[in-house]
């Protein structure tokens, strides 16, 4: 009898957790980024990502990628992974931790829109 109650409670908790995660992922997918809005937020990124061949040296020497032209969804999901701690770089984690889902989507769209012929952002 007790094991049946535990099984029922565990099933209900699993269902609730699944619904909560489903709601979270639907909410995150509903965020539409704007390259124009991202242009005003890019100051968070340019200190490292706008410098050709830049290498960060904390905590290890790390070649910082140029992210112009990268896929918007990839940038937004990478930032979300840093914010959650799934990616391990202290500087990126602290920067991503300050961003909302909208900020991440906007930055993703901004960088996705960049090409070799894009004019320089005046904030760079």
Automatic annotation (TrEMBL):
Cytochrome c domain mapped to chain residues: 33-115
What PROSITE patterns does its record include? CYTC (PS51007)
SUPFAM superfamilies attached here?
A: Cytochrome c
| A molecular function (GO) term | heme binding
**Keywords recorded for this protein, A-Z:** Electron transport, Heme, Iron, Metal-binding, Signal, Transport
Q: What is the protein name given in its UniProt record?
A: Cytochrome c553
- Annotated signal peptide: 1-22
């Amino acid at each position: 009898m007790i094991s049946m109650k535990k099984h029922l409670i565990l099933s209900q908790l699993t269902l609730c957790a699944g619904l909560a995660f489903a709601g979270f992922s639907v909410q995150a997918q509903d965020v539409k980024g704007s390259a124009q809005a991202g242009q005003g937020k890019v100051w968070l990124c340019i200190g490292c990502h706008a410098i050709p061949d830049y290498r960060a040296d904390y905590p290890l020497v790390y070649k910082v990628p140029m992210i112009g032209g990268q896929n918007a969804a990839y940038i937004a999901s990478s930032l979300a992974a840093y914010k959650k701690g799934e990616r391990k770089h202290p500087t990126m984690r602290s920067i991503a931790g300050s961003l909302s889902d909208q900020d991440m989507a906007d930055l993703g769209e901004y960088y996705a829109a960049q090409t070799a012929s894009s004019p320089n952002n005046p904030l760079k």
